[in-house]
Every structure is written in structure tokens, then in C-alpha cells.
Amino acid sequence: MHLVLHHYWRSSSSWRVRWALAHKGLAWDGVAVDLLAGAQRAEAYVAERSPAGLVPCLVVDGRPLTESVAIVELLEELAPTPSLYPHEPFARARVRQLVELVNAGTQPIQNLSVLRHVSSLVQGVDADVQRAWARHFIERGLAAVERDLGLVAREGLGGRFAVGDALTAADLYLVPQLYNARRFGVDLASFPRLLAAEAAALDTDAARASHPDRFAP
Ligand SMILES: N[C@@H](CCC(=O)N[C@@H](CS)C(=O)NCC(=O)O)C(=O)O
Asked: Which stretch of DSSP H or E encloses residue 97?
């Protein structure tokens, strides 16, 4: 299987996929897409790689696939071990729920193009207001995740990681979102469950191999 990942070093969605690849021990070639320079909107990239003009895009034997959830689930099916999803159906559903709290409920509202569009519509929306906007939605999303982790614990599904004692897809979404949270200056003191799961997840070879700092230009 030949894998080519189009990604940006500091993009949280890109980190999710790099992490899944590292966890499963899959080799890949990388193509850097410079989001600040607008490379994600280049005609050829949108036509041939990402219809939405976003990263990541994983090209699998010549076939481009976007949306990190679809990519991570494909990798899970192509390379089932080590798994990123618990076997038990409800625990599996909890993992997917946590993934969506970040993927659908948090990251899209603080994404670069959203922040820029708000600035273009409303006079006086400068970088400080953009950061305040991002902080608000990240805090709201992480508060939901923190409460969800409380539920997970009460159900007996807790452990070192977000769900249980093995790394799951939930960790691949929560930890990069925390990375974004720090970039925007979110105070994380009220998220102890999240911070504990983050510490466990970061202390893995796959986290280190996929971390944004390793891919900074
Ligand atoms: N739901 C998508 C989100 C992709 C996404 O929002 N990517 C961001 C970087 S994290 C991006 O490409 N932003 C560039 C832009 O908004 O122009 C996924 O999980 O792959």
C-alpha cells in the first residue's frame, strides 16, 4: 500500500491522521500544504485532492481521501491492529461520540477560514477578537468533552486514556484540540480528566513521531 499524506504541520486535523499512521506502523510520504500561503485553495489541489480545500488528504494507492474520520476508519479497516477502537459496542460508540464532539462540535468553528471570514464581514474584528472567538468555542467544546469523560468514568469505561487503558481514536482528536487550545490561550485548569488523558496519550511513541513540532518548517 502506498500512502501519501497532504498535511500542514500545525493543523490539528493533520496530526490526527499522522498519529493514526504512526500508531499502526504505516509508512507514508508527506506533501506539505502551506495553509498560511493559501496552498489548500490552489486549483489543482481542490480539483485532484481535497474538494473542500482543506488538509489532511491521504492518497491511498492513487485514490485521494479527505475528512480525518473517514481516513482513520479506513486505516482501521486496512490495518486492524493495533486497533484504535474498543471492541465492545458501547465503548466504541463513546469513542465515536468523543471524536465527533471535537471533529464536528469544536474544531470547525475555530478553523482558520472561519476566523478569517468573520474578520472580513465585521469591521474591527482584529487578531485579538479572532482569538477570543476561538477560545470561546474551544472552551465550550472541551467542557463538553470533560463532562463526557465523567460519564465514561461512571460507566466503568475509564482508564489511563480517554476511554479505557488503550489509546483510541478519541485520544487522536482530544490531544490535538488541546494543542490548539493552548495556541489560543485557553485556560485548561478546569479540565482535569482531559489533561490526565492527554498526559498518557502524549507519552507514546506514536504521539512523539506525529507531533507538530517534528514537522515544523
Ligand atoms: N473535518 C475535517 C477538518 C479539516 C480542516 O478543517 N482542516 C483545516 C486545518 S486543521 C484546514 O485545512 N484549514 C484551512 C482553511 O480553513 O483554509 C477533517 O477532519 O479532516
From this structure: helix 89-103
